[in-house]
TrEMBL record:
Gene3D superfamilies for the chain: Bordetella uptake gene, domain 1, Periplasmic binding protein-like II
Superkingdom of the source species: Bacteria
SUPFAM superfamilies given in the database record: Periplasmic binding protein-like II (SSF53850)
Key word Transcription present: no
Signal peptide location: 1-25
CDD domains in UniProt: PBP2_Bug_TTT
Cell membrane found in the keyword field: no
PANTHER family cross-referenced by the UniProt entry: BLR1237 PROTEIN, TRICARBOXYLATE-BINDING PROTEIN
Stated name of the protein: Uncharacterized protein
Family: Belongs to the UPF0065 (bug) family.
Keywords: Signal
Length: 322
């Protein structure tokens, strides 16, 4: 009996001496969910599906994309904030739920900083100002002049807080008014633009370009500070009478707050390594997004600065918090 007790004691001591987490099953050992706040077809959704495939190859578990659009991205953000902090539920987010919403709403049903653990930023890209292909507006000046001649008659669609702020800033700087029609993501807003239900839309360039290529839309301008390589004839808004206009969207991954640091590190290392490959650069280049992967610490600082920047833009555009 004494010999048996000594053996059990030694086994327990060895188990307790293992590094933190080694006594548990290795992470990951079951499927991972990527929650997206926009419908299929959006730029964020495309990024999520690319990420899911590459994560599966590297981590050896299934990675699924779950679209939860609507509610100003509240639905998706709340789902992740309330999930178990075990690394198996992530928010693959644009800036809307984790930065821009703070500029739009007095009371969010989640805290964009306290309720999430930054994992990795992946990339960023310009938006585009688009109109229907047969619209009478050939330039930004044409659209601005029409809005001035018909104040409050034109309608614009927006599929997120960032698109709304980008549009409202454009209206404010141009001294014009238009009616806001909200949508549950860029895809339905662009579908209605192609159908003539709204007059113009700001959306990610990658989401707009298929409509342009099919002859259903026309690009008037892009929101970055340089022209896009794939659209060299499309001016920036800065070139179109809006000096200083610069608004871009970005994509990043967040976990629920209190997710263990070791799991965050595993996820961050995986995502950053994926987006540092030539394949990722080529994937993003198709939609004129730029690869810009950084880890948790850098993403956290970047997120806080983005909250400040979008709040400043919303104030400049005269958008009262809801």
């Amino acid at each position: 009996m004494n010999k048996l007790m000594r053996m059990l004691a030694l086994a327990c001591a060895a188990w307790l001496a293992l590094p933190a987490g080694a006594a548990r099953a290795a992470y990951p050992d079951k499927p991972i969910r990527l929650i997206v706040s926009f419908p299929p077809g959006s730029g964020t959704d495309s990024n999520a599906r690319y990420v899911a495939k590459k994560m599966e190859e590297r981590l050896g578990v299934a990675v699924t994309v779950e679209n939860r659009p609507g509610g100003n991205s509240f639905i998706a953000a709340q789902a992740v904030a309330a999930a178990d902090p075990d690394g198996y539920t992530l928010l693959l987010a644009s800036n809307s739920p984790v930065a821009t919403n703070a500029a739009m709403f007095k009371h969010l049903p989640y805290d964009p900083v306290k309720d999430f653990a930054p994992v990795a930023r992946l990339g960023f890209g310009a938006m585009a100002l688009a109109v229907k292909a047969d619209a009478p507006y050939k330039t930004v000046a044409d659209l601005v002049n029409a809005a001035r001649q018909r104040p409050g008659e034109l309608n614009f669609g927006s599929g997120s807080a960032s698109y709304q702020i980008a549009t409202e800033l454009f209206l404010s700087m141009g001294g014009i008014k238009a009616n806001h029609v909200p949508y549950r993501g860029a895809a339905p807003a662009l579908t209605d633009l192609a159908g003539g239900q709204v007059d113009f839309v700001f959306a990610d360039y990658g989401a707009v370009i298929p409509f342009v290529q099919s002859g259903r839309m026309r690009l008037l301008a892009v929101t970055g500070d340089t022209r896009l390589k794939s659209a060299p004839d499309t001016p920036t808004l800065q070139e179109s009478g809006f000096p200083g206009y610069y608004m871009v969207n970005w994509t990043a991954a967040f976990a629920p707050a209190r997710t263990p640091a070791a799991i965050i590190d595993t996820l961050s290392d995986t995502l950053v390594s994926i987006y540092r490959t030539p394949d990722a650069a080529e994937f993003l280049a198709r939609t004129n997004w730029e690869v810009f992967p950084v880890g948790p610490k850098e993403l956290g600082a970047f997120q806080r600065e983005e909250i400040r920047k979008w709040d400043e833009a919303a104030q400049r555009a005269g958008i009262p918090k809801q």
